[in-house]
Design brief:
- GO terms for molecular function: diaminopimelate decarboxylase activity.
- It is a single chain.
- This protein is an alpha/beta fold and about 425 residues long.
- It folds into 2 domains: about 160 residues, Lyase, Ornithine Decarboxylase, Chain A, domain 1 (Beta Barrel), CATH 2.40.37.10; about 250 residues, Alanine racemase (TIM Barrel), CATH 3.20.20.
- It contains 12 helices and 21 strands.
- The strands form 3 sheets. Strands 4, 14, 15, 16, 17, 18, 19, 20 and 21 form a 9-stranded mixed β-sheet that branches.
- Helix 5 packs across helix 6 and helix 8 packs parallel to helix 9.
- The structure holds ligand LLP.
- The site of ligand LLP has 19 residues, from helix 10 and helix 11.
């Protein structure tokens, strides 16, 4: 559920008309709803909060990659969330937003020694190791700093997540995690390394999952592994179940499983584990909490249906170009008329297409459209391709709103480059 609704014929973010924001800030502009973010955290907590193990409630560690805006992270910090980070940059952002270090989980296959040192100096809660090679490096870095790193291995359960290949991570052919069958040996070797304290297991099989079965299978394998590891003498205290639960992009399709259904599945799968559970939801928390508002530059005739050329492009919202992702497109002030159109951006690539032959609200030049479900993996994946500056972001709460990232001036892009003096020398 979100807080983007039609009121008096105009699409609002909570109590603020999107038109008012677009008039003041220009377009394209991302708009987030704080109430929606809060609601999603509460719904998720309600779904998993009762799964107390070892006297500890689960840790909800927001996957920062989904939306790292400081205002978004601050809302989550205020709700007591932790963070799942995958780079030194995300770690610094999470800390800057006030997320306590002990609630930070560091994931990712390519952590550098410098990033490990940063995490260790901050005192983060857990490193999710993705290879034995990484364990050796972390051991060296921790030993040099004279500290102990709390670690889990991310185990690849070799299940098919049934999602888009580019966001599927739990098959044995993916780059993620250590192979399930070799896990006991990997744990034994990690436990023998100085500077490491083995405390948990981690799993994450993919994103935008619309079926609970692959997760259920993965968790069953993890449960069996926990028993093996304990029998081997490891003190397994945490089980990080990753993120991945899908959200609704197309209101015409059946909704993905609810957080409550997910929570019930997790309760059954983890009964008797006696581990503190960690969750890393990203999309579920912020996906439906954001929209991208864009203006129609012009409408151009096409062979089958007209091209609605908007001022947002693939550099602002990359998901359709990258994953053929489907985003619901609504008029900010619908006239009531509908038509079939192709919605495209101005970038010089055919891939800069948001929708083909889409039945949608009829719009004309200067009208505004909103791409829905653009709170996750949207602004954060933007680039400046075609020298298009990064899009501003706005946070709404009730009847208040504020710019939380200013529009990048194109001059900043130009000024970021430098030209060596010798470029101007005559070629010899
Ligand atoms: N934990 C780990 C280790 C992850 O790799 C991810 C996402 C998450 C948690 C959060 O997953 P979520 O709950 O958001 O599904 N750019 C793609 C999605 C990439 C997801 C990468 N990993 C998209 O736009 O669909």
């Amino acid at each position: 559920m979100d807080h983007f609704d039609l009121r008096d014929g105009a699409l609002h973010a909570e109590q603020v008309p999107l038109d008012a924001i677009a008039d003041a800030v220009g377009t394209p502009v991302y708009v987030y709803s704080a109430a929606t973010i809060r609601r999603h955290v509460h719904v998720f907590r309600d779904a998993v909060g009762s799964l107390v193990h070892d006297g500890q409630a689960p840790l909800v560690a927001f996957a920062v990659k989904a939306n790292p805006n400081a205002a978004v992270l601050s809302v989550l910090a205020g709700l007591g969330c932790g963070a799942d980070v995958v780079s030194g940059g995300e770690l610094k952002r999470a800390r800057a937003a006030g997320i306590p270090a002990e609630r930070i989980i560091f994931s990712g296959v390519g952590k550098t020694a410098e990033e490990m040192a940063l995490g260790l100096r901050e005192g983060i809660g857990q490193f999710n190791l993705e290879s034995e090679e990484e364990a050796i490096t972390l051991s060296e870095v921790a030993t040099a700093l004279g500290v102990t790193a709390r670690v889990a291995y991310r185990v690849n359960p070799d299940v098919d997540a049934g999602t888009h290949a580019k966001i599927s991570t739990g098959s044995s052919e993916n780059k993620f995690g250590i192979a399930f069958d070799t896990a006991p040996q990997a744990y034994a070797r990690a436990a023998a390394l100085p500077g490491l304290a083995v405390q948990g297991v981690a799993v994450h099989i993919g994103s935008q999952l619309t079926d609970l079965d692959p997760l259920r299978q993965a968790f069953a394998r993890i449960g069996a592994l926990i028993e093996t590891l304990r029998a081997d003498g490891h003190d397994i205290r945490t089980a990080d179940l990753g993120g991945g639960l899908g959200v609704s992009y197309d209101p015409a399709l059946p909704a993905p499983p609810s957080p409550a259904a997910y929570g019930a599945m997790v309760a059954a799968a983890t009964a008797g584990w006696a581990c503190r559970l960690i969750f890393e939801p990203g999309r579920l928390i912020v996906g439906n909490a954001g929209v991208l508002v864009t203006s129609v530059i012009r409408v151009k005739p096409g062979v089958h249906s007209p091209f609605v050329i908007v001022d947002a492009a693939m550099n602002d919202l990359m998901r359709p170009a990258l994953y053929d992702a489907w985003h619901h497109i609504r008029a900010v002030r619908p006239s009531g008329e509908r038509f079939e159109a192709n919605v495209v951006g101005p970038v010089c690539e055919t891939g800069d297409t948001f929708a083909m032959r889409r039945g949608m609200d009829k719009v004309k030049q200067q009208d505004r459209l909103a791409f829905m479900t653009a709170g996750a993996y949207a602004a954060t994946m933007a680039s400046t391709y075609n020298s298009r500056p990064l899009t501003p972001e706005v946070m709404v709460s009730g009847d208040r709103w504020e710019i939380v990232r200013a529009r990048q001036p194109v001059e900043a892009l130009i000024a970021a480059d430098s030209v060596p003096a010798w470029i101007f020398e005559q070629p010899t």
